[in-house]
Each structure stands twice: as C-alpha cells, then as structure tokens.
Amino acid sequence: MQFSLYESKLKNLIAQNSLLKFCIVLLTIGEFFLGYKIDLAMKYQRTILMPNRIVKKTVITGDEVPQDIINQHTRDICTLAFNYNPDSVRGQYGELLQYFKSGDVFEAARTQFYSLADTIKSARLSSSFIIGKPIEIDSDKRLITVTGSERHWVDMAFVDVTEKAYVIAYEVNDGMFQITSISEKTKQQPTGTNSTAAPQPGDRNAK
Questions:
Q1: What angle is formed at CA 135 by the lines to CA 160 and CA 139, rounded to 5 degrees?
Q2: Claim: this prediction has a pTM higher than 0.85
Q3: Model confidence over 20-35: pLDDT tens digits?
Q4: d(Cα 104, Cα 143) in Å, to the nearest integer?
C-alpha cells in the first residue's frame, strides 16, 4: 500500500513538473513574440506633427495629409512668420523653425530668420498679415499659396498696407509636415518657383 501511494505521488509530481515545463516554454515563446512585435512597431513608428487647434479624429495614410490639416498648418505658419512685433519676433521665428525640414534646409532657414529677427527688432517694425483668399494647395508640386493683406508699423506709426502672396513649399516625411521654403510670390513669378530666402518685411519686391 505504501509503495503504491508513493508511486502515485511520484507520477503526480512528474506530471506537474511536465506541465510546469510546458508553461515555461509557452511563456518564453510569448516573451519572444512580444519582443518581436514591439521591435517591429518601433521600426514603423511615426511622429505626426499636428496643429494646436485640431481636435477631431484625423486619418493620415502614407505621405498624404488631409487638406484641412494643411490649411491649419498654413494658418499657424503665417501667424508665426508674418504677425509679429519687435519683442515677439525672435520667439515666433524659433517656433516657426520647428516646421522646417532638418539638415541643410533648417540650418539655412535658422540663419536667415534670426538675421531677419535682428533687423526687425532694430527697426522697431511690426507686421500684421490677414489671409484674404482661400488657401491654394497643389498636392502634386507640394506647394501652398497664401494671399492676403499685410500691414506694417514702425514704433506704432502706420507705414503701409499691401496685397501679398506667399508660396510655402513643403514635404510630408513619415507623417510629418515639413517646410522646405517660404517665399513671396511676385506677379512675374510662376507658382512653381520658390526660394529658401526668408521674406523681407516691408519690401514689396522681396522674394
């Protein structure tokens, strides 16, 4: 009887040990599979830069961004680039630079816009730009055209008001909307022509 009881307990222990080993193997496989999925997700992770005022659900497929998102980005960019005073301009240009594509484009834009900010502060110039027409988006050429009226003041004294159009060249890289250039469009300048130079305040012939 005692031998049979011992044999029964031994069989139970062996079965429990086998079950425990099987569970450990399953857990190990699960850990490897989870690690693989996490690594795969990290490789395909995208950083999507969204305008502050977008609150509704937005779907971005590939490198195509919905038009309402581009419109809001454009309004934010125009606010930072063309609505300033001597005290706010450098900070605004710092925020604007976050939109620029990294690398040589960013470095060139940083040099140009910070130099422009110093000029604006020295001249005590203020500017206001109001978009007056629907924003034009050419998705094939990746160009945005913004038209509106721009007013300038020097030390709070009104200087002028002019009708201006700006062309913003952009790219969408891994879901991120990035600027490659901002330029003023002249009457002789075709829409597809753009420059990386920062628009000059108060200069009606700036490019």
A1: 135
A2: no
A3: 777 787 788 878 777 7
A4: 20
